[in-house]
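Q: What changes when zinc ion is included in the input?
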Amino acid sequence: MKCFEHNKEFDKTCRKKQCRYWIECKESKNCAILASNSKEKLTLEDVGKLFSVTRMRICQIEKSAIKKLREKVLSIIN
Ligand SMILES: [Zn+2]
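A: The predicted holo structure follows.
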C-alpha cells in the first residue's frame, strides 16, 4: 500500500519528510497526493504555497506539462 493510500485509509498524517509526496500542509495530511485530490479548486498561488515555490513557477510548470501532453496526444493521433 502506498504512503498516501495508507494515510487516507487510516486518517494519518505523513511524518516522513523524505517521502516523495511530503509537503508542509497539515490540512492535507502533509501529502501532495491528498492535497491534489481535494475537491477544492486550487489557484496557482495555492499550489505554489503547497510546494514552497512562487505562483509564477507553478505557471511555468503547468505550461510545460500542457505542452508535453499536447505533443504526446498529437504524436498518438497523427
Ligand atoms: Zn508520505
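Observations recorded in class: The chain has two domains: 1-39, 41-78.
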